[in-house]
């Protein structure tokens, strides 16, 4: 089994730029203002225009509601220091690198639509 996420966003272009700059994702196929697939290793995140959801779709956020509330996207990387450096270079608000009680180091970042992302090492430090 592999996991693929589809995020419904306000501005597809801004989301593409965020995932490319902050998290080193690459566009798969063609870029579209409606739907674009991005990958980094085996992680696949697709960004879709929020309006693509019908008015009665259960994933459609109501006015003022934060998309992704209650979800933490976890990305495991081989080189945490490099991922952290790339995220900080983009000028995004990035937490400090932290050693967690379970033995892994990580940092946290939030995408333009408020999706919460934890980038973690793959092995205990």
Automatic annotation (TrEMBL):
Heme is among the record's keywords: no
Domain VOC: 1-122
Pfam family, one: Glyoxalase
InterPro entries hit by this protein: Glyas_Bleomycin-R_OHBP_Dase, Glyas_Fos-R_dOase_dom, VOC_core
Gene3D superfamilies: 2,3-Dihydroxybiphenyl 1,2-Dioxygenase, domain 1 (3.10.180.10)
Sorted UniProt keywords: Lyase
Top-rank lineage group of the source organism: Bacteria
Gene Ontology MF terms: lyase activity
Protein name per its UniProtKB record: Putative enzyme related to lactoylglutathione lyase
Species assigned in the record: Rhizobium lusitanum
């Amino acid at each position: 089994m592999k996991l693929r996420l589809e995020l419904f966003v306000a501005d597809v272009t801004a989301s593409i730029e965020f995932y490319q700059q902050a998290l080193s994702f690459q566009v798969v196929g063609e870029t579209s203002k409606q739907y674009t697939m991005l990958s980094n290793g085996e992680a696949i995140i697709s960004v879709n225009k929020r309006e693509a959801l019908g008015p009665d779709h259960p994933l459609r956020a109501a006015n003022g509601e934060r998309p992704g509330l209650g979800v933490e996207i976890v990305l495991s990387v081989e080189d945490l220091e490099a991922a952290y450096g790339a995220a900080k270079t983009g000028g995004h608000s990035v937490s400090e690198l932290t050693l967690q009680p379970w033995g892994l180091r990580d940092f946290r970042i939030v995408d333009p639509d408020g999706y919460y992302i934890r980038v973690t090492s793959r092995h205990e430090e």
